[in-house]
Amino acid sequence: xxxxxxxxxxxxxxxxxxxxxxxxxxxxxxxxxxxxxxxxxxxxxxxxxxxxxxxxxxxxxxxxxxxxxxxxxxxxxxxxxxxxxxxxxxxxxxxxxxxxxxxxxxxxxxxxxxxxxxxxxxxxxxxxxxxxxxxxxxxxxxxxxxxxxxxxxxxxxxxxxxxxxxxxxxxxxxxxxxxxxxxxxxxxxxxxxxxxxxxxxxxxxxxxxxxxxxxxxxxxxxxxxxxxxxxxxxxxxxxxxxxxxxxxxxxxxxxxxxxxxxxxxxxxxxxxxxxxxxxxxxxxxxxxxxxxxxxxxxxxxxxxxxxxxxxxxxxxxxxxxxxxxxxxxxxxxxxxxxxxxxxxxxxxxxxxxxxxxxxxxxxxxxxxxxxxxxxxxxxxxxxxxxxxxxxxxxxxxxxxxxxxxxxxxxxxxxxxxxxxxxxxxxxxxx
Length: 430
Hints:
Elements: H1 3-39, H2 46-57, H3 65-89, E1 93-96, E2 103-107, E3 124-130, H4 135-142, E4 147-153, H5 162-174, E5 182-187, H6 189-201, E6 207-212, H7 215-221, E7 226-231, E8 234-241, E9 246-249, H8 259-276, H9 278-286, H10 293-310, H11 325-335, H12 341-349, H13 358-367, H14 378-386, E10 396-400, E11 408-412, H15 414-429
Parallel strand pairs: 2-9, 3-4, 3-5, 5-6, 6-9
Antiparallel strand pairs: 1-2, 7-8, 10-11
Helix pairs in contact: 1-3, 2-3, 3-10, 5-6, 7-8, 7-10, 8-9, 8-10, 8-12, 11-12, 11-14
């Protein structure tokens, strides 16, 4: 390893340590935010900002003082943004800040009926849905569009393919869509991924709106801009990063879902709480989940929003959202549709957490009615994991949780990953 590689390795190690410290800092910021809200104090505190700059700069070498001051001001800005967003989220509104790709997320019951007040639908609109979504949802959106075209695809992961992608593009071409027109997804993660990818590619990119109708998509896949289709049975192999213009989360549409689908979606919220928010995890442990569903959705979106803002294209911190996914995707491929995505993620988390917290995680999964035993063919799981899009020639970055509310990201080879899986299976077989 030459000096350049050694220096980069030090930077990578330091960045991971800083990510973990940043999570701790933001937990403290949350406490500050709660106190300010309770006592009616303003988010902005100029005296406190000046004090932080003065005190922290004392320990910095003179050469680095200007750079550290710039860094600290950015950190303070993030803290203020987080506090503002926590306050606005309670009003059903969240802002995802990505510069010129920023957009709003509305969490509003009944919002489907006044989507036109939040989105620009005064143009040609391709509304993409599937036959598992109540047709009135797409029709409600269509009545608010100037020139709507609804396409209803078959339900299921098999729809997320290049053939369906081509079908959407051809329909837009046939209806003479221009760069000024848009695509609206009304459905779960499959429809959101497919419709978003079509929007990203048509005429090199047109506006995309997402109206998620499943718990999983409302909590996780509807924001962040990751759009894709599967190829030869491997998930999300062909895709892009294409941020929506707006995301409308209407919790009322979840009333038509069966309990299994709701629970499968909540696996992603459990994942995020295990990594970032011990209070949210304890809510799963101790409270009625149905009564707190809207709060779970908001808090999960806040976590993902915060991560995406720091790492839009999954070069570092955003990898933490893959907790449970590498093995989970392997299980999903091996099961060939028998289990939902969220159920596979739930199983994928178990080998990646410590023995100390595994009983707590198992109790939450059982409370939600999620599977807790890996029954898939392990050889097939490992084969699929090798083809996972997050894999690299030298191995894979894995996320582990040793304590609820914190995480570690580490690089390992596939032997190390599979050793964790094998060891877990041996432990649970005793």
